[in-house]
């Protein structure tokens, strides 16, 4: 019992967030008489929130370095507009337009990263300027009007599903993938455990590991089964999961990830340890440009149009997700999984509140309160731990 | 026997899991200078926080009597109200406000919330005269040195009609001259009837000005005794602090000195902002394998600037000169280049430049040489734990686990992490800048032993220190710096406090001990 309590106490940040997510999900399950868990709604949940999750992944890196990026909403719109101009006005092939659009996102990252990392202008200022600049350029590009519709193949990016194999009432490929994913997770956990035992490190009791894995596998498979009852796994989910896997690996296991945390934790010390902190900050912003570009494409594909108002306030959703997920304003702290959980908290609330008919006015206010309470809870825990 | 101005009786303070203070008694006579000594973690700061109301009445057991009255302070404001003022090691001044504004911060000369500038400045001026600081009250605090800032803090205390002044490590970041002036000021204030409590690791200061001394160890009072009667003062204090007799403050060592490993030739560095100000002026130094070379100098002599300009040009502009390792010229234009060439630099300020305080021990240890634990830039976490564990044991870093955040450790343990971090880079030349600043006697001894071990392994070690006994006790050879120049080079056998001090001040034969 003591182990569980300790485990919980040491990870209160992460577990607290997951418990909050479970609680909120359960709350809406009750409030909506179970509609939130219907296959159709789960699919919608992913389609609606995919790009926020993507943005949160890029944003958490920026915030870990101790910076902020206020421009992503405008970049989303700008890249969407570029894609629209290329595909709709100029008939550029979809694949080429996608590459060019993401390249534009990267260039925006280069532009902002240059001012922040090498000139030394605070990121708040640079990206606030970027927010205005790219919104303005979007209006100019689109001449204040919407461009629609995109070619069909482009729409797949946000509303497509994995193809099915075989016939039947449900989507077989999804089930197979979910079982595969489960097996991979189980394998990873146990091989990690094995090496830890090999090195004589402390490991958690076996039953805790098994229970943890069991719950995770159950959730994954149940979730996919629900999706399979509808149309299967959306392309958006594949993109999100791939990004989670890649970025979690980078942040946890690579030198680059370590350098990002070190830069945010104490830039001067990192400098004197041989970390090229300016370069780190620069590339984190380039990365965020690429991510915002990708989100811009997903957003445009979902609306099936490029509009001047696209992505308005989206940066604030992404930033809120990151902070709900336990990142620290002063840098050095935060995780990809945390940001995703934070994004899901926002997403489930958006979805659930819409379903029970809460107006946009109260939705905003309630989300604001949740952000405040989540970070307040975090600060309170830190203070208690510090004593 | 004069009366006690302060009596703290049976103070017990517990934190979850730790008894920080255990029935501590402290009696301070009116008008005396009372030193409070003890290793880091002995409970000195906690005791002072209890006294000043940072830990409010009720959060501890025991009683406090000030001028015969029992006190139950709820906060600092109340303790200041009766005349107890504490000056912390990290100064609490607002850098962009003027001296006068700082002196009256929170205590403004005002009528109806409108500041009376005339009063503020004229009273500041009087206070500055009392502490002997010749600066205009309108000068911004960021424009004066640490030594002067310390005086501003004292002036601020005086403005609050202080009766009992508590100074926590006041000279930790001061040079010898400033330290001496500060101690003289304390004696001056004593004449004016102000009682002081001095917390210090520097035993010579304690010996020089204390009337009585209280020793704390592991949260308990060991003893209180008069300082003037005691002859073998240092020994008694050290014995009381560590609970054992330290035969020597510097571990024994037989140097085995080899070939020259590192040379700096014709090194010139200019100020990073004022490009016409030369900070390092044609310095030539060399270090041999297995040798510990000390650099002595007053604050502002350019020692840190020299070290940092060598280490990846992290300080200064228009750097000229050349570096040689094993006789071959090397380039070290960036930190990573310097590390690759086997240079390591342990900064004088471990919190700002040494550690990521919000990260754990193992990640701090490996940061400078992640290559050693990674393959194709992917980190092997198991290897990391093994390596960090090895160094933790080697350096005797006292923590429950490797996952402990660096910020939660004591100064001595933090310094050991910084050291282990640089040992992890497997350097050939190790530059240590104030390696024992602000850490206790026991941890100092351990760090000295590590330095000796590293030299014995064949590294060339360069030690910068403001504490002359340390430079003399550790080094095989000493360079002395003054105003950016090397003014002397002394062998271990010929160096003593006086001749080193003479080179440090750049004033040939004059005897400085009696100066100013």
From TrEMBL, chain A:
Keywords: Cell inner membrane, Cell membrane, Membrane, Sugar transport, Transmembrane, Transmembrane helix, Transport. The chain crosses the membrane at residues 12-31, 43-63, 70-88, 94-117, 124-142, 170-191, 203-225, 231-250, 280-299, 319-345. One of its GO terms (molecular function) is transmembrane transporter activity. Its main location: membrane. Coiled coil: none annotated. It comes from the Bacteria. This is Xylose transport system permease protein XylH. It comes from Thalassobacillus cyri. The lineage of its organism: Bacteria, Bacillati, Bacillota, Bacilli, Bacillales.
From TrEMBL, chain B:
SMART domains: AAA. It is a peripheral membrane protein. It comes from the Bacteria. Signal peptide: none annotated. GO terms for molecular function: ATP binding; ATP hydrolysis activity. Residues 6-243, 264-508 form the ABC transporter domain. PANTHER family: CARBOHYDRATE TRANSPORT ATP-BINDING PROTEIN MG119-RELATED, XYLOSE IMPORT ATP-BINDING PROTEIN XYLG. This is Putative multiple sugar transport system ATP-binding protein. It comes from Thalassobacillus cyri. The lineage of its organism: Bacteria, Bacillati, Bacillota, Bacilli, Bacillales.
């Amino acid at each position: 019992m003591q182990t569980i309590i300790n485990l919980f106490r040491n990870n209160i940040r992460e577990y607290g967030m997951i418990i909050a997510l479970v609680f909120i999900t359960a709350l809406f399950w009750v409030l909506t008489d179970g509609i939130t868990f219907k296959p159709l709604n789960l699919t919608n949940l992913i389609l609606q929130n995919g790009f926020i999750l993507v943005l949160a992944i890029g944003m958490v890196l920026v915030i870990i370095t101790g910076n902020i990026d206020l421009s992503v909403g405008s970049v989303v719109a700008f890249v969407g507009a570029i894609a629209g101009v290329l595909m709709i006005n100029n008939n550029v092939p979809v694949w080429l337009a996608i590459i060019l659009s993401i390249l534009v996102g990267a260039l925006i990252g280069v532009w902002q990263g240059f001012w922040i990392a090498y000139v030394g202008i605070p990121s708040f200022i640079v990206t606030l300027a970027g927010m205005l600049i790219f919104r303005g350029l979007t209006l100019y590009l689109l001449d204040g009007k919407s461009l629609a519709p995109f070619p069909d193949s482009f729409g797949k990016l946000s509303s497509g599903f994995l193809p099915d194999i075989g016939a039947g009432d449900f989507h077989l490929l999804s089930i197979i993938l979910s079982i595969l994913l489960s097996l991979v997770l189980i394998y990873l956990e146990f091989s990690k455990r094995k090496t830890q035992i090999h090195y004589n490190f402390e490991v958690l009791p076996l039953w805790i590991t098994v229970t943890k894995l069991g719950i995770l596998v159950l959730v994954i498979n149940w979730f996919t089964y629900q999706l399979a009852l509808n149309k299967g796994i959306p392309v958006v989910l594949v993109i999100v999961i791939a990004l989670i896997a890649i970025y979690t690996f980078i942040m946890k296991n690579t030198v680059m990830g370590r350098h990002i945390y070190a830069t945010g934790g104490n830039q001067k010390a990192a400098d004197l340890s041989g970390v090229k902190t300016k370069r780190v900050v620069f590339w984190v912003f380039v990365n965020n440009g690429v991510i915002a570009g990708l989100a811009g494409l997903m957003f445009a594909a979902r609306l099936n149009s490029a509009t001047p108002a696209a992505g308005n306030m989206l940066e604030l959703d992404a930033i809120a997700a990151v902070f709900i997920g336990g990142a620290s304003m002063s840098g050095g702290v935060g995780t990809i999984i945390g940001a995703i959980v934070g994004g899901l908290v926002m997403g489930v609330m958006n979805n659930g509140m819409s379903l029970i008919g809460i107006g946009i006015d109260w939705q905003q206010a309630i989300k604001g309160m949740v952000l405040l309470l989540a970070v307040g809870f975090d600060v309170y825990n830190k203070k208690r731990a510090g004593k | 026997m004069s009366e006690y101005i302060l009596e703290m009786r049976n103070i017990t303070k517990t934190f979850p899991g730790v008894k920080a203070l255990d029935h501590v008694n402290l009696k301070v006579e009116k008008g005396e200078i009372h030193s409070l000594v003890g290793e880091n973690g002995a409970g000195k700061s906690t005791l002072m926080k209890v006294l000043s109301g940072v830990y409010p009445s009720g959060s501890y057991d025991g009683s406090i009597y000030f001028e015969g009255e029992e006190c139950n302070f709820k906060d600092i404001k109340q303790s200041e109200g009766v005349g107890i003022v504490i000056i912390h090691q990290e100064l609490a001044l607002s850098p962009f406000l003027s001296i006068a504004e700082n002196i009256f911060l929170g205590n403004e000369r005002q009528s109806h919330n409108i500041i009376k500038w005339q009063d503020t400045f004229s009273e500041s001026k009087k206070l500055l005269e009392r502490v002997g600081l010749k600066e205009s009250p309108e000068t911004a605090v960021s424009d004066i040195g640490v030594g002067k800032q310390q005086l501003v803090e004292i002036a601020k205390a005086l403005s609050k009609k202080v009766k009992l002044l508590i100074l926590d490590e006041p000279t930790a970041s001061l040079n010898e001259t400033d330290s001496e002036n500060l101690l003289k000021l304390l004696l001056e204030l004593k004449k004016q009837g102000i009682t002081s409590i001095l917390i210090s690791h520097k035993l010579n200061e304690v010996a020089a000005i204390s009337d009585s001394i209280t020793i704390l160890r592991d949260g308990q009072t060991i003893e209180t005794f008069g300082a003037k009667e005691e002859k073998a003062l240092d020994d008694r204090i050290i014995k009381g602090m560590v609970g054992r007799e330290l035969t020597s403050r510097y571990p024994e060592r037989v140097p085995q000195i080899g070939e020259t490993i590192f040379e700096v030739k014709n090194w010139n560095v200019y100020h990073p902002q004022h490009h016409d100000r030369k900070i390092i002026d044609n310095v030539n130094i060399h270090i041999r394998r297995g040798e510990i070379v000390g650099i002595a100098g007053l604050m502002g002599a350019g020692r840190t600037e020299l070290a940092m300009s060598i280490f990846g040009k992290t300080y200064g502009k228009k750097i000229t000169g050349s570096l040689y390792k094993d006789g071959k010229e090397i380039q070290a234009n960036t930190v990573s280049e310097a590390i690759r060439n086997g240079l390591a630099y342990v900064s004088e300020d471990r919190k700002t430049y040494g550690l990521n305080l919000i990260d754990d021990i193992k990640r701090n240890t490996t940061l400078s040489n992640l290559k050693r634990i990674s393959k194709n830039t992917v980190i092997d976490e198991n290897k990391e734990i093994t390596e960090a564990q090895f160094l933790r044991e080697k350096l005797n870093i006292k923590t429950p686990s490797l996952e402990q955040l660096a910020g939660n450790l004591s100064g001595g343990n933090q310094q050991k992490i910084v050291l282990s971090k640089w040992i992890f880079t497997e350097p050939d030349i190790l530059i240590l800048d104030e390696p024992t600043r602000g850490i206790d006697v026991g941890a100092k001894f351990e760090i000295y032993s590590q330095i000796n071990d590293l030299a014995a392994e064949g590294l060339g070690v360069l030690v910068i220190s403001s504490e002359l006994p340390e430079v003399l006790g550790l080094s095989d050879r000493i360079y002395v710096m003054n105003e950016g120049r090397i003014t002397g080079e002394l062998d271990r056998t010929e160096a003593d406090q006086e001749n080193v001090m003479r080179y440090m001040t750049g004033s040939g034969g004059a005897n400085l001990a009696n100066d100013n």
